[in-house]
Amino acid sequence: MEKSYRAKGLNEPTSELESYAREVMEEMVRQSIPPTPSNFDAYFDKLLDNKPPAFRKRILHLLELEDAGDEEHQGVLEQYLKDAFSNVKKFLQHINLLYKNLKHLEALIEKRRFEVEAIADKGALNTLLESTRKDIQTMGRIIKKEAGELKERYEATSELVHEVQDHAIHDEKYGVYKKNYLLKKLKQEEKLIKEFRHDSTVMMVKASDEVLSRIESPKVRHLVLRTIARLLLKTSRRSDLIAHYDDGVFAILMRHTSLQNAKLAAERLKDLVGNTNFFVGDQEIMLDVEIGIARVDLDRSTEQTIVCALEGVEIARKSDEACGFCPQDIEI
Fold first, then answer.
1. 16-30 and 37-48 helices, crossing angle to 10°
2. Which residue, 147, 232, 201, 198, is CA-closest to 38?
3. Over the stretch 132-184, which tens digit does the pLDDT of each residue have?
4. What sign results for the dihedral spanned by CA atoms 303, 306, 310, 316?
């Protein structure tokens, strides 16, 4: 008799979302995948790829409604800190300008005092000018002291903001995660693979050298890379993690994804990017990317996995394939 993998103890679903959630749970039981929240999240997205577009759209809409937006909130806080840093810098610049203007005023009055000395009846005027000079000197000392304190506060705030930037997880240039967060989550995924023995992959994506060689403007180059980042976000699953790795190279951590499924994702991405074009003046530029894929292999370090995927990028560049695989993974 065939073994049943149907989850027990569940009432009949009352909505599409409930029905789909039960389907996900039953598939995890069938695959002997531990039903942890992170695994459920990954399989929720994985099975959704095979559903009709209309169904996917409805389910994703429901998920968006209940999204807590914690990551977006953190991004907003980081932006607030950057804005505060900018405001402090401008404030200090204004104080510095005020101090320079006072020094200039002091020098001007001193100059006028020497000019007045040439006048015969100048007693009262000299007294007034001397009094004014002393007042300005006093103000100058006060402003100088305050400016010094403000400078110390500025430098302390600057160091703090730079520390926050070093620990920030969002890359504001491209709207994805930063390299440090990618490496952190990749190490965490290695621990999960060691525990649960599932497959995960890393995909490295870079703009084609041929495309970039035709673009001289830094602004247009940035627009190209920003567009690629948006396409990565558009084609990825909710459980995928997309980051800017370095120098216009993007990385995607694809949890619970085999090399074969990663190849299918690469082919979809390649097609989507290939149908995107730019006009630079009268010149039309068709976008293209080079993609490398590597397994998250416990027999090599996190950094070696990244290097291995980058080797796949070079293989893709030299071939007509949609992507290149890590040579070590091909041998396996």
1. 110
2. 198
3. 778 778 777 877 887 777 777 778 777 777 777 777 888 989 999 999 999 99
4. positive
Phi and psi of 124, rounded to 5°?
Answer: -65, -40
Own/partner contacts of 307-310, CB < 8 Å, gap of 24 or more, are 309/202, 309/203, 309/204, 309/251, 310/204, 310/249
199 phi and psi angles, rounded to 5 deg: -95, 135
Contacts of 275 (CB under 8 A, 6+ apart): none
pTM of this structure: 0.73
Residue-wise pLDDT for 51-82, tens only, equals 898 998 888 877 765 554 556 657 766 777 77
Q: Distance between CA atoms of 193 and 253, rounded to whole angstroms?
A: 13
Q: Which residue is listed with tokens 């070079």? A: 314
List the structure tokens of 303: 């950094």
Choice between 163 and 304, residue whose per-residue pLDDT is larger: 304
**Residue 47: closest CA among 28, 66, 71, 63:** 28
DSSP H/E element including 322? none
CATH T-level assignment (fold) for domain 174-331: Alpha-Beta Plaits (3.30.70)
CB proximity list for 286: less than 8 A, separation 6 or greater: 211, 274, 276, 277
What is the DSSP track for 235-282? HS-TT-EEEEEETTEEEEEETT--HHHHHHHHHHHHHHHHT-EEEETT
Residue 99: what pLDDT?
81
Beta bridge partners of 176: 171
